[in-house]
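Field reference: sequence -> structure
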Amino acid sequence: MAEMSMNKAIHGAFRRDLRRFIEALTIFPAGDLQRAEQLATAWDNFDDQLVFHHEGEHEIAWPALESVGVSHELLAQMDAEHETMAAALTAARDAIAALRRTASAEDAEAARTAVQELQTVTVRHLDHEEAEIEPVYQAKKDTAEIKAMGRKFGQVSPSRGGRFFAWVTDGAGPDELAAITGSVPRPVLTIINGVFGRTYRKTIAPTWRT
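Structure field:
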């Protein structure tokens, strides 16, 4: 089993959702407002998770990484890639909102095109970040700076934490699950996911089982 950071496990969830949206939009049944609402609800979660992750990287991860030797120039490049992603995310957000209103074939196609563009720039960034920074997470995981970073990321409400863990484990592979449970004790994860991840499992997870 290949060892990976929690950060890379989160990246896996973004990649999965982008593939899921593209597949769902490719076969979208024109005129189905219920399906449009279901996809838009799943999108709201994805959108929130991506924005929250990137804001957290800028505010929490980058200072910690710079303190253990990652160059300011590389982190500035990562932020520039985030800006490119933010523009594509805005376009996809608008396209999904239009589909939510109309459920038309034209808007489904426009949403698929927008999400494909978001997938292109996002995967390019995730690949770059993992190539440059994943080795640092592995080499420095036991340092005080990286441990403190992890604690800061964990300072969220139970409801956000529960939705996050339900989402990040939905479809995760063995390596990703090992990274997640390595960061959070399994009994704690079970409680948070079980109690506070209920809404995700009821309203969003079924989107990908349809």
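Note: The radius of gyration is 18 Å.
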